[in-house]
Design brief:
The protein has 644 residues and is mostly helical. It is built from 34 helices and no strands. 63% of the residues lie in helices and 0% in strands. The C terminus is likely disordered. Keywords: Cytoplasm, Endoplasmic reticulum, Repeat, Ribonucleoprotein, Signal recognition particle, TPR repeat.
Amino acid sequence: MSANKESNLVQAYIELNKFCQSSDYERALKAAGKILQIAPTEQKAFHCKIVCYIQLHNFKEALVHLNNTKHAALAADLQFEKAYAQYRLNLPKDALQTVDSAPELTPALKELRAQILYRLEQYQDCYNLYRDIVKNTTDDYEDERKANMSAVVANLGAINPNADLPQFEETTYELSYNVGTTLAMRGKYNESLPVLKKAEQACSESVLEDGGTEEEAKEEAAIIRVQQAYCLQQSGKEKEAATIYQNVLKEKPSDQALVAIASNNLVVINRDSNVFDSRKRMKAATQEGLEHKLNSRQRAKIIYNQAILAIYSNQPDFCKQCCVKLTREFNEEKRAILIEASSLVKDGKIQQALNLLLKYGDTLTLAAAQVLLAQGDRKAAVKLLEESAFKFRPAVIGVLCTLLTADNDYEKASKLFTEVYEHYKNDDEKVKALRNVWRAAAEAHSRAGNATAAAQAHETLVRAAPGDKRTLARLVKALIHEPERARKLAANLPPITKLEGNIDIDALESSKWMMGAKIVKKTVQSKQEQSPGTPGSELGQKKKAKRKRKTKLPPSADLSRPPDPERWLPKYERTAYRKRRGIRRDVIKGSQGMTTNAVDQYDMSKQTPSVATAAKSPRVEVKSSESAWQRKQQQKKKGKGRKW
């Protein structure tokens, strides 16, 4: 290399070093390009160029240079930069392949691999790798690694809530948030809320201590508040949760994933009550680019809610598209079929819905039975449940028994319980657990008139609960056709003398037991208060005299005069009642001076006299002693207070 070329190269490296130290990556990129023009094989300059592209977030250009065959020799040792560029371009599978192809797994590659595994939702492998990194690394980033590890644990708790997960000390607000999220994912919402509130307070204090504003503190803590709202929503406090979601969305956070989750949860709260608002919220929850910011579990729930919203909005075609997406992208075929069947039922296509549900197999048989029962077809529902794999489940047995009894088909119900007994008779644990089933079986057999089967059901119940004397008594009663065996079993019952003392004959004979438990209790207490004297002793007892209360008279009552016989009648029915004056219904309308038929009607000078006998009014006329002039003066005094 000539001296001039070497001096130019040294000068270019000095400029590159100056720009890198001042974080001026655009000028550093030009300086690195200048060095590569002078010496195309300079590996350090090529490395600086790739780092400048990454610092400028131009990952696509960095990956193009790394994949260029001309630079294969220069990019041979840059596996970390290549994998990081692929990771930031949302190519996690390619990034994992690049990391695994590296000759040595350096600490930087280990941490990047853990991030890639988290993005690929391989949480168990990610947790194992983070545990190894935390154990073998000591530097200033220990809190960040623990925060990432706790986030992985939270997702493990969402997948398997009963798993044995590690505990973390809440030294930072990120750790507190992840600990609270883990509790929420495991269904411990009441325990999660105080932890999340503590994390919110610590987050706000941390941002303010670092010189941030209150608005920045609110934006940083928005994700914690949304998690609190989720816990409240799952606890049944939907109004409080909706208020928090709306307040967070009013602040317009920059995190697109946070907006999507809050909007989706508001749609769930709205249900079918506010469809217009739900459609607006769902639009925010399904924006482009969210597929890289939300995990598959969150995206599947958003699509599921979008399909249900399409049913509420009467959009069956769009609902079907959402169901297809659920099946293809998220492998949620069962849920998709349930939603599509619900849409068909709402459109009145019952048979298509049944065919779709039964096509999936026995898993959705109960849903098909529910559709039939909603249509009132009990016989078809009974037939479907009897042929299903769930026939001997306790809940299904109860449904079948109820339906058969409603149709008065006691023989079929008796036959059903016989089959149930044959199915469970060799399993002692199940026999003990199904005591309610055997009680129902005994009743069904009795109604069907099958005394032998009823006795067998009672015997099974005694086998399930050997210490229950009432069950034994019922068995003795059921064995009326086998007196010898009944006597042997009756010997194990307590003697009748022990039971006599607890029986109240008077309470049993009382007819008031039909009125309810409170009436019976009062009657029993009154019977117990009375002394059981000899017959006829009640003749000597005096009856309690009822206390007479004095009648209260009004203060203006005049006892010297007889009371008004019409005092209990309404005012309008009394003889002295007069209608209100001053109400004129036939009002003459028109301009002044206009002659109408109404004027002639009310002009008494034009009326012809007619002879008529006036009927005597039953009302009593009240005569006033005042003259007409005095009444006129009083009316004038009353009218003085008016203002016109």
